[in-house]
Every structure is written in C-alpha cells, then in structure tokens.
C-alpha cells in the first residue's frame, strides 16, 4: 500500500442493516404483514424454514445496537424503515400508525444523541402484504408509484427534520429478479411452476424493476419540491453491482462483460444518472418485454439521485453465451464464473456460493461507475459471509480472519480508488452490523461484524468489527 493520505473528517463510515433482517416483533406495535412474513412462513422457501419473527430482536434491543455502533466509533448507520410499521396496509388512503412512527422516532433520536448520523432506506424488500394482495405490488406501476410516494412523504414529514440522508430503494435488481424471475425471494413469482402457481419470468421482473424506478422518481420529486429546502437533506437510490471481468480479451467477451454490467447496473443507473432510459443493449435483447418510460418519466428520472449508493460484494469472469438469449435471461446473454482462463480461482469460497473476495474488482467497478456516471459514491453495503461460521460457537466465530482479510483488501482498494484514481467516495457502510436473517439462507449464513447468539440474542463484536474501527481511526483525519 502506497497511500499515505487520509480521508476527510466528514467521511461517512459505519454499518448497515435492513428492517426485516433484524427487527423481529412482527406482530407488535401495530405493524402490518409484509410479503416476507408470508414467504418465510411458506414451507420450503427459506433454509430450515427460518423466518424473521424474532431475528435480532432489534425492536426491543435497539439501544444495544446503538451502543454497539458507538463502541465501534461509527459515524453513520444505515437502516431501513418497515413500510408496514408506518402504514400497516401500505396504501395512500390507508391509516398511519403512530406507534410505528414513535418507534423510529426514539431510535433516530438515540442515534443522534450518540453522535451517529442516520442513513435511512425506505424500501429494503418488505412490501406491505396488503399492496401485494390488492394489485400485485410493483406489477402495477401506477398504483405502486402513488402508494410509495405517499409513504415516502409520510416518512419525510415525520423524520426529515432529523434524517438528512434518504435512500428510496435497496437493490431493485435483486428485488425484481429474486421476487419475479427465479422466485427465490418474496413474493416468489416465477414461470417455474414447481415453485409458484403464478408468475412470468419473461416479463414480470422487467415490469417490477420499472415500477421501482418510476416510484423512485416520484418520491424524489416530492422530496425536492416539498421537503429539501427546509430539511436540507439529500436523497438517492442504492444499486447492487458485481464487477464483470472479461474472461479473455476477445472482442466478444469484452463486449459480453460490458453488457453484463449494463444489465446488472446500467438497467437502473442509466435511467437515473445518465440518459433517463435503459441501456440500448437491453432494448436490443428484450424488445417490448422491457417497458418504456413516458417523456415525463424520463425527464423526472434523469438526475433523480443526489449520490450513487453502491452495494458491492464480488466479481465474476464473464464470457459471451454463443446461443440466442432465452426468455428467462436476466444477465445479457452471458455466462459467468470464478475461474480465470489460466485456471486460477478468485479468492477462497465464502459461505454464500455467489461470493468470492476480489478487492481489485471493487477498484475497477468504482472506476467504471465514476467514469460512466460522474456522481459521488457512498458504498452503502460491502461485506462477506464466512464458510462454516454458523457451525462455530461464539468463542471461535469472533476470530473471523477471513472477513478481516476481506475488509482489509476492499478498504485498501477504496483508498487507491480515492487517492490514485480520483474517484469521489463520500462514505462506506459495512454489511452488516449484526449477523441477521439472510433472506432465503435464513440464519445459516452470517454477514455480521458482530456475532449474534440466536438463542440468547446476545451480541458479541467480532475481530472484523474491531478491524473496521481501527482502519477508519487510522485513515480518517482527526
Ligand atoms: C444484499 O444483497 C442485500 O441488500 C442484503 O440485504 C443482504 O443481506 C446482503 O446483500 C448479503 O447477501 O446466486 O449467482 O444468482 C446481495 C445481493 C443477491 C447478490 C443474490 C448475489 C445471487 C446471485 N445478492 N445474488 S446468483
């Protein structure tokens, strides 16, 4: 490492979580049911049939989480609001739940009292069940966008005097693919009739993603028109993205890697940060299965994010698929893997089969995003699971050397991207503050820098949490 400069004093570093993954208390405080309650209680959908009924019990143990953050020295904390705690049925004519507002109020106040700045995600996949029952949620663009805008307004109104950093949607790509293409996430729709009686993988994921974009545009318009001037905050969206390294330097594989980046990232980032429309490569492959934006929607979308919220975990080698694209393809008609043409594997396996550490891929993706979108970046998630960690007791699990090495590599490359490459990065939030409900993997897969004992719900810092504290103490100006 050659970097000797330091990140600025106001660099926004900390940790991230999401409501359904940590809160528990699903039947308390007037919370309405969500599609993840339904999905996780459907046998066979989640590993070991786990669910988020208790999770980390943050609903009751919120003060422990605040103290943990304080002990790590975190400057910021990214968490999400459960839409159905605020508006149990979700819709724009439905009643607001004061108990839900009060819960988030006390939590936000506790963060601020401890010097921690909140970054609030409005939607991290836990759609109110009532909106799914009424009109299939994001499969109905106009209804969904109108209901989301109203929910966003309620949140800005209630919390915006203290919350100055808003994220509309977390990972629309993962939500639409998991929920509407392969059915591994709620609401579990897919063309695969062995998994779901309803769904159309050829069209629904593109419609669902489209609706989230339109809803995002309307919520941002509302914030800028009616709240920003008096509240003085910023608002954006968070997108997942893996680096795509061409398998070799043949023109077709270089083009394939670029196309993969456009399907995975450009699908949401081009409309918001670049052109107000989908990448041409997507229109070419998907034709009218990909919805179109009206002129007004395009204009609203373009420039609709004050920052680039980046969730990043891994890298793939990518090569062209030499056959016509299938109707269920989500990736741009490419194949991907972890082994290079010289037979070398990207980093050692994690617990999650899709994840291999590749710090240089992070740096390449930061440069790709900066060059294409020229928008300051917050890394809103980055982290890893550790193979076999769930088989260990707390005494061993806290010695998470694999995760320490992961963060070390990625954070060194963050410094290189900032100081050697000139990428503007304003913050970094590690995923995750706590071991938590890892969606379809349930509790079998841990991403926390803090160990959670799911029997006692006790929290114990791992070495990775201490590493992050030390890293930022050393690399941020005092
Ligand atoms: C994030 O999603 C989420 O925002 C967060 O809630 C989650 O806990 C965290 O990351 C850790 O997973 O199997 O090759 O088809 C990560 C997105 C979604 C990336 C599933 C990998 C599987 C690709 N992940 N995806 S594959």
UniProtKB/TrEMBL annotation:
Gene Ontology BP term (one): cellulose catabolic process
Molecular function GO terms recorded: cellobiose glucosidase activity
EC number: 3.2.1.21
Pfam families linked to this entry: Glyco_hydro_1 (PF00232)
EC primary class: hydrolase
Keywords, ordered alphabetically: Glycosidase, Hydrolase
Catalytic activity: Hydrolysis of terminal, non-reducing beta-D-glucosyl residues with release of beta-D-glucose
Domain of life the protein comes from: Eukaryota
UniProt-annotated stretches for the region Disordered: 180-204
Chain's role: Plays an important role in cellulose degradation. Shows hydrolytic activity against several glycosidic compounds.
Record family assignment: Belongs to the glycosyl hydrolase 1 family.
Name of the molecule in the record: beta-glucosidase
């Amino acid at each position: 490492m050659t970097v000797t400069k330091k990140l600025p004093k106001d660099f926004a570093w900390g940790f991230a979580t999401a409501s359904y993954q940590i809160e528990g208390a699903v039947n308390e405080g007037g919370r309405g049911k969500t599609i993840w309650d339904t999905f996780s209680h459907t046998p066979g959908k989640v590993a070991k049939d786990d669910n988020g009924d208790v999770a980390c019990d943050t609903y009751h143990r919120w003060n422990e989480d605040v103290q943990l953050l304080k002990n790590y020295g975190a400057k910021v904390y990214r968490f999400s609001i459960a839409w159905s705690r605020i508006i149990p049925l979700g819709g724009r004519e439905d009643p607001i739940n004061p108990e839900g507002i009060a819960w988030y109020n006390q939590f936000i106040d506790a963060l601020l009292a401890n010097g921690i700045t909140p970054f609030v995600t409005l939607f991290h996949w836990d759609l109110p069940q009532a909106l799914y029952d009424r009109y299939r949620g994001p499969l109905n663009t106009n209804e969904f966008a109108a209901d989301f805008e109203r929910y966003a307004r309620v949140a800005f109104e209630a919390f915006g005097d203290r919350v100055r950093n808003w994220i509309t949607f977390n990972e629309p790509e993962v939500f639409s693919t998991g929920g509407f293409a392969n059915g591994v996430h709620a609401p579990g729709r897919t063309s695969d009739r062995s998994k779901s009686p309803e769904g159309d993988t050829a069209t629904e994921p593109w419609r669902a993603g489209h609706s989230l974009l339109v809803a995002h545009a309307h919520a941002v318009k509302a914030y800028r028109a009616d709240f920003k001037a008096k509240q003085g905050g910023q608002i954006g969206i968070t997108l997942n993205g893996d680096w795509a390294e061409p398998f070799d330097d043949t023109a077709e594989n270089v083009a394939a890697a670029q196309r993969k980046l456009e399907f995975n990232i450009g699908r949401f980032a081009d409309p918001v940060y670049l052109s107000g429309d989908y990448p041409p490569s997507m229109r070419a492959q998907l034709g009218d299965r990909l919805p179109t934006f009206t002129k007004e929607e395009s204009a609203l979308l373009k420039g609709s994010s004050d920052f680039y919220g980046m969730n990043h975990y891994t890298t793939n080698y990518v090569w062209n698929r030499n056959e016509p694209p299938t109707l269920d393809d989500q990736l741009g008609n490419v194949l991907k893997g972890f082994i290079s043409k010289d037979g070398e594997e990207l980093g050692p396996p994690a617990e999650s089969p899709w994840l291999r550490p590749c710090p240089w891929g992070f740096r390449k993706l930061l440069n790709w995003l900066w060059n294409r979108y020229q928008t300051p970046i917050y890394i809103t998630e980055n982290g890893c699971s550790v193979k076999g960690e769930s088989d260990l007791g707390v005494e061993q699990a806290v010695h998470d050397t694999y995760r320490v090495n992961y963060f070390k590599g990625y954070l060194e490359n963050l410094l290189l991207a900032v100081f050697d490459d000139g990428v503007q990065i304003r913050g970094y939030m590690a995923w995750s503050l706590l071991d938590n409900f890892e969606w379809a993997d349930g509790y079998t897969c841990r991403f926390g820098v803090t160990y959670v004992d799911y029997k006692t719900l006790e929290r114990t810092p791992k070495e990775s949490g201490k590493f992050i504290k030390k890293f930022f103490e050393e690399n941020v100006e005092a």
